[in-house]
């Protein structure tokens, strides 16, 4: 082992890997809890549809099916249930009457926003347990970790069940153009 605490050159140590796995368990638990709180209202695939539309804006059924990687009939059934539940609004596309436009209703937006706010509150509670100095040092480290992982672009964030701060343009949380 060299003086930086590394064993085999630039390879991550077991301690580094274990620390990231421990943090990942916290993030997964926070995400799972926020999903569990809306689980009685929607299924996970339905939640993915809502988050996708919240992140990307109005979509048609073909875009939903393609993004979910499912047959259009499966996407139609999921969207029909969301329309019936009052979480999604379906209307004719004014530019192409063969297409339907899917948009969140006020209740659909509220469900997604509530889920995300619960995540923010839980993360804030964890961060409050850390000193301000450690929190400041944590931000660039987490951004570097996300970049090293191939940081998921805003257009794909819905696939994991969360939205971005600036889903339809503006500046991404790392300061880059969204």
TrEMBL record:
Keywords: DNA-binding, Transcription, Transcription regulation. The keyword Transcription applies. InterPro entries: HTH_MarR-typ, Tscrpt_reg_MarR-type_CS, WH-like_DNA-bd_sf, WH_DNA-bd_sf. It holds the Pfam family MarR. Residues 16-147 form the HTH marR-type domain. Gene3D superfamilies: Winged helix-like DNA-binding domain superfamily/Winged helix DNA-binding domain (1.10.10.10). SMART domains: HTH_MARR. Coiled coil: none annotated. PANTHER family: TRANSCRIPTIONAL REGULATOR, MARR (PTHR42756), TRANSCRIPTIONAL REPRESSOR OF EMRAB OPERON (PTHR42756:SF1). This is MarR family transcriptional regulator. The lineage of its organism: Bacteria, Bacillati, Actinomycetota, Actinomycetes, Pseudonocardiales.
């Amino acid at each position: 082992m060299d003086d930086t605490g590394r064993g085999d050159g630039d390879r991550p140590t077991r301690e580094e890997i274990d620390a990231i796995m421990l943090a990942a368990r916290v993030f997964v638990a926070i995400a799972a809890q926020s999903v569990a709180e809306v689980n009685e209202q929607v299924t996970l695939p339905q939640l993915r549809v809502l988050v996708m539309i919240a992140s990307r804006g109005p979509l048609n059924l073909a875009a939903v099916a393609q993004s979910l990687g499912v047959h259009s009939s499966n996407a139609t059934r999921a969207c029909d249930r969301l329309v019936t539940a009052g979480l999604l609004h379906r209307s004719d596309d004014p530019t192409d009457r063969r297409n339907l436009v899917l948009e969140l209703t006020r209740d659909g937006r509220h469900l997604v926003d509530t889920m995300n706010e619960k995540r923010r509150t839980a993360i804030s509670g964890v961060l409050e347990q850390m000193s301000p100095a450690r929190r400041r040092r944590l931000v660039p480290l987490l951004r570097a970790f996300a970049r090293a992982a191939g940081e998921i672009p805003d257009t794909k964030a819905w696939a994991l069940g969360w939205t971005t701060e600036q889903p339809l343009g503006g500046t991404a949380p790392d300061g880059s153009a969204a």
